[in-house]
Amino acid sequence: MSSTAPQDFGQPLLLDDYVAVQQPITTTSPSLCAVCHIAASLQRCSNCKNIHYCSSQCQACDWPHHKLLCKQFVSSQGARPSSSHRRALYMPDKSSRPFFIWLQYGSNGYPIDRQNFFPGTPDADLKTIAFHNRFLPYWIQISYDSNPSGRSLNKNECAKRLTEDAPGAAKWSGPLVVLAYSAEEGLEKPALDVDTSVLGPLRDYLRLRCEYDGPVFVEQPQERWEQADLMRILGGETK
What we know:
Layout: E1 2-3, E2 13-14, H1 56-66, H2 70-76, E3 85-91, E4 99-104, E5 126-132, E6 138-145, E7 153-154, H3 157-162, E8 176-182, H4 199-211, E9 217-218, H5 227-234
């Protein structure tokens, strides 16, 4: 199955107004269960030791998807080609199984060899869409072929599998490359290593974009200040 339609997943809109939301976790936050997101116990995958769960039930629920990356993650340990390489996730269009790849980064924080995973795609046609899951301490960025010229692209079999054939799953065409960036340093630094914890939030996001075509918003970290605190921060005096 193929498509000649252009793709444009847009850019998320930032929420400016204060909304009382649960604050996202940070790199120093306690580990959360990959399924229900409550504080995890010491239980984690005995093979890769990379993902945490609160119970055996949650681990069993996650296994059909986690097993896609578990062994790959173990084999990728110690296989970094150089200090400028970071692990990314590749979702090929002709296979239903995602796999880890290594991308090399320049000093500007951008991958040098990402184009190699989009054969036949002009560099100008590559677009990215990023999202932040509050249960992960980093941003996830998806690179995709925007296809403005209407070339024939295969429907992405990985996206179809991960979204379990959700309505609209066929909108993801061509290969996808998934990167992770620090929520604190942003895109100006080389990416972080993608690991197995990315798969659940990625699956949820792909499914969301399959089922929803409206504007996409991103929450910004926010705090509500009392007047005295606000005046102190701004250098004013309280009355």
